[in-house]
Amino acid sequence: MVTVPYKSFPAVTALIVAGGKGSRMGAGQNKLFLPLGKSCILGETLQVWQHIPLVDSIVIVSAAGEEATVADICANMQISKVKKIITGGKERQDSVWQGLTYLESLTPPPALVAIHDGARPFYDGTDFSGFLQAVINAGIAGGILGVPVQDTIKTVSQNQVISTVPREDLVAVQTPQLFQFATLYHCYERAMAADVRYTDDAGVLEAVGKSVLVYPGQKQNLKITTAEDYAYGQFLWMAKKKEAGICE
C-alpha cells in the first residue's frame, strides 16, 4: 500500500457531540460545563481539536438552550476553528445526525469527518495523523480507536454466568471515530429512516457490511460520565500539568 504524504492529507472536519445532559453525573447541569483546567470539560476538549493541524473546522452539536453557553466557551478559549454550533436531538444518534445533515448542506461537504465526544477531554491528538494515515491507506470507510480489554468478560443471565468471552478478541472503543463523510452520511440516512439505534457511529457502517479499521487508542482517553469519572478526571488533569511542570 502506498503511503499518502502528510501534506496530501485531506482536511478533516471535527464534529463534537455536546448535546447530552449527563444525567448519570447527577451534577444538576450539563456535565460538559463542569470546571476542568482553565475552563471546563468541553472547553478543554475543544482546545485539543483547535491545535490538531489536520483539522480545519469544528462543528459543535449542543443541547437545546445551551448554544449561547457553548459559544461563550469557544470565545473564552479562543477556539477559532468552530464554524457552527447547531442544536442536537433527543439522543446522541439524533444529535450526530443533525450534525451530519448540516455538513451535507455545505458546498462542498467535507471529505472526512471525525466524530468525538465532548466528554473526552484527555484525548491529546498527538497520533491523529497516524490514525488518519492508517484509515486512508486501508482504503475503507472509517476507523475507530480501541484499547484491549484487560478484565475478564462474562455473559450473564439472571445473575448466573452463561459463558466467558475470549478477551483477546475484544477492544474497548473510544472516540474520535474517523469516516469518509459521504459514506457515513448515507449509512446514517438509512439508519434514521428505519429508526434503528446503534451504540456508536461505527455501528452504522458495520450494519451494512462496511469495513472499519481499529487503531490503537489511548488509555487516558477517559469519557467523563459519572461523578467518579469526574473525580478521576481532575486527578488526571493535575497529574498531566505536574508532569509538564505547569502550576495552576
Structure description:
The longest helix is centred in the C-terminal third of the chain and has 17 residues, at 227-243. Helix 3 crosses helix 5. This protein starts with 11 loop residues before the first strand and ends in a 5-residue tail after the last helix. It is α/β, with parallel strands linked by helices and 248 residues long. A hairpin with a 2-residue loop joins strand 2 (35-36) and strand 3. The protein has helices at 41-50, 67-76, 92-104, 128-138, 181-194, 202-206, 227-243; strands at 12-18, 35-36, 39-40, 55-62, 82-87, 112-117, 142-148, 153-157, 160-165, 171-180, 212-216. The strands form three sheets. Strands 5-4-1-6-10-7-11 form a seven-stranded mixed sheet, with helices on both faces. It has a two-stranded antiparallel sheet with strand order 2-3. The model is unreliable at 1-5 (pLDDT under 50). It has one domain (9-144, 173-243): Spore Coat Polysaccharide Biosynthesis Protein SpsA, Chain A, CATH 3.90.550.10. The protein is globular, with a radius of gyration of 18 Å. It contains seven helices and eleven strands.
Task: Please give the largest β-sheet.
Answer: 7 strands, mixed
> What is the CATH topology?
Spore Coat Polysaccharide Biosynthesis Protein SpsA, Chain A
Tell me the strand percentage band: 25-35%
pLDDT averaged residue by residue: 91
Q: Please trace the helix and strand order, writing H or E for each element.
A: EEEHEHEHEHEEEEHHEH
Give unreliable regions as ranges: 1-5
CATH architecture: Alpha-Beta Complex
Number of strands: 11
CATH superfamily: Spore Coat Polysaccharide Biosynthesis Protein SpsA, Chain A
Shape verdict? globular
Supply the helix-strand structural class.
alpha/beta
CATH class: Alpha Beta
H/I helix tally: 7
Share of helix among residues? Answer: 25-40%
